[in-house]
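Run log // design_07
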């Protein structure tokens, strides 16, 4: 092989002389004057020539009948098990959305658990229809400790209901319609015809409602969880399998 920055002169040919057939290896690359003689190359000959410079890497494939500039990657074939099938856009977007939603949900649950353990906020499942239509059975009422939000007129409060003797009987979540912190509040379920008999004071109030999550409480019963958990796990496995499945164009 010869290297030159100018044309290669072909020696005079006569009987017994070697016939030189010189060709430029990188004809389309300025400044890469590399020449090669393919006159006596075997028919099945192949030669890969690669040079590098500040402008990058240049590769030519020298065959018996042609010289072709190529990329080095063109001659590298990945094993079949390393080839990843092209996925459809909706599957990629769905997987991405599920991942973001899952991470967000975990973050929210961790934050809520920390606040709940410190008695800052509580989630209470509404079991009766006393607050219909503003709060329905199966809704979740999120309340904040009255230390951080003072109850006032029109607020929904969760308070400890007691007998006339003072024994606790349960937690009611009703709306304040009158009263004050000193004398006690008048509370009433939106759907109830009359106010509650008890007038809870601040020590009786467990939380002040800040917002309602509709319907979710219906799925937090033991029976619903037994039914829902296998469905969620099955959907997760199906989506994971679809992610690795080849997509036909």
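design_07 sequence
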């Amino acid at each position: 092989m010869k290297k030159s920055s100018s044309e290669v002169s072909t020696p005079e040919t006569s009987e017994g002389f070697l016939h030189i057939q010189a060709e430029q290896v990188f004809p389309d690359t300025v400044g890469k004057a590399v020449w090669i003689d393919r006159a006596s190359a075997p028919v099945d000959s192949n030669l890969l020539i690669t040079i590098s410079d500040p402008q990058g890497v240049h590769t030519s494939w020298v065959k018996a009948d042609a010289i072709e500039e190529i990329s080095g990657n063109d001659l590298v074939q990945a094993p079949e098990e390393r080839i990843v099938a092209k996925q459809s856009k909706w599957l990629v977007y769905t997987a991405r959305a599920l991942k973001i939603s899952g991470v967000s949900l975990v973050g929210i649950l961790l934050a809520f658990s920390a606040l709940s353990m410190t008695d800052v906020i509580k989630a209470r499942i509404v079991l009766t229809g006393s607050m219909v239509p503003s709060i329905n059975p199966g809704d979740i009422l999120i309340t904040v400790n009255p230390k951080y939000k003072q109850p006032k007129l029109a607020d929904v409060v969760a308070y400890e209901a007691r007998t006339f003797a003072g024994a606790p009987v349960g937690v009611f979540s009703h709306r304040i319609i009158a009263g004050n912190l000193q004398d006690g509040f008048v509370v009433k379920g939106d759907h109830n015809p009359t106010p509650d008999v008890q007038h809870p004071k601040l020590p009786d109030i467990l939380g002040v409602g800040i917002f309602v999550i509709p319907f979710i409480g219906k799925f937090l019963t033991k029976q619903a969880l037994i039914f829902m958990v296998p469905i969620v796990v099955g959907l997760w496995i199906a989506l994971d399998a679809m992610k690795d499945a080849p997509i036909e164009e």
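Confidence is low (pLDDT under 50) at residues 1-20, 245-249.
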